[in-house]
Structure formats: C-alpha cells, structure tokens
C-alpha cells in the first residue's frame, strides 16, 4: 500500500493538524486509577485541596491522547517505522474534564540516515492546546520514516 507521506515528503517547517479530542471526567479517573493514581487525578475532593483546585488529567494521559490524534491525523498514512524516543515533554497547563484538545505538530528537522539509505528521521514538535487556545503540552520527538520505492 502506498503511503501518503514518506521520508522524502517531509521538510522543516511543515505543519500538520491532527484533530480534536474531548477529555471526559470518567476517562481521567479510569486512566489515573490504572496508571497514575495521584490524588489530583483520582479523587475530586482531594484534588480540590491541591494547587490545581480540582481534578486534572495525568500528563501521561494527555500524551496518550496526543499520540492517538497523531496516529489518526498523520501516522496511519505515513511510512513511519517507530521512534527512538523523545527529546522533551512539557506539561504547561493542566487538562481538566471537558477540555477539548487540539493536536498539531511541526516538523523541526529532517535527517537522512547515514547508514541506511532507505530511511531517515524527522524531529517534530507536537502542540496540544485546549479549547481556549491555551498551550497544555508540548512534545519534541523523533520519528523514523522509510523512503518511498527504495529497496532495502
């Protein structure tokens, strides 16, 4: 199957919108109880007494939402073959029940592989904004991508 985006289609400065997602109270509680059971993620009464003044989503939950939006909005149509990791994740503004998160990313750098001519790496910065346009999370990551029509 031909991918919409291969490595050679990428250029620094490109911007991709990956769509929106509404985060619900029940989802925040479910994720946090399973993966990040800090009281400001799992207990509304306790959360009200913290610096957050209410229930907030785990940063890891927000990253998972961003990953899903990235998949649906780009990766499922790209010749992406994984990631060697993240350079930076910043939790800037808490995500609360009912927030609608808009996810987009910008290509920062495009680097051909020196040892594998069939691929290269793109460095991206993902932006997660709430419905008020406030930046909630940024993620800098590297994604490995195959070139189009190059034999391995």
What does this structure look like?
The protein is of the alpha+beta class and 152 residues long. It has a single domain (7-23, 56-146), classed as Hotdog Thioesterase (Thiol Ester Dehydrase, Chain A, Roll). 23% of the residues lie in helices and 34% in strands. The protein is built from four helices and five strands. The protein has a five-stranded antiparallel β-sheet with strand order 1-3-4-5-2, with helices on one face. Strand 3 (100-112) and strand 4 (119-129) form a beta hairpin. The longest helix has 15 residues, at 59-73. The radius of gyration is 18 Å and the shape is elongated. The model has no long low-confidence stretch (mean pLDDT 95).
- Structural class determined from secondary elements: alpha+beta
Described by strand count, sense and barrel closure, the largest sheet is: 5 strands, antiparallel
- Can you give the mean pLDDT? 95
CATH class: Alpha Beta
Counting structural domains, the number is 1
Q: What gap, in angstroms, lies between the N and C termini? A: 17 Å
CATH topology: Thiol Ester Dehydrase, Chain A
Can you identify the CATH superfamily? Answer: Hotdog Thioesterase
Strand content: 25-35%
Assigned CATH architecture: Roll
Tally of separate helices: 4
Spans where pLDDT lies below 50 across 5 or more residues = none
Helix content: 10-25%
SSE arrangement, N to C: EHHHHEEEE
Strands across the major sheet, in which order?
Answer: 1-3-4-5-2
- Rg, Å, rounded: 18 Å
Shape: elongated
- Counting DSSP E segments of at least 2 residues, the number of strands comes to 5
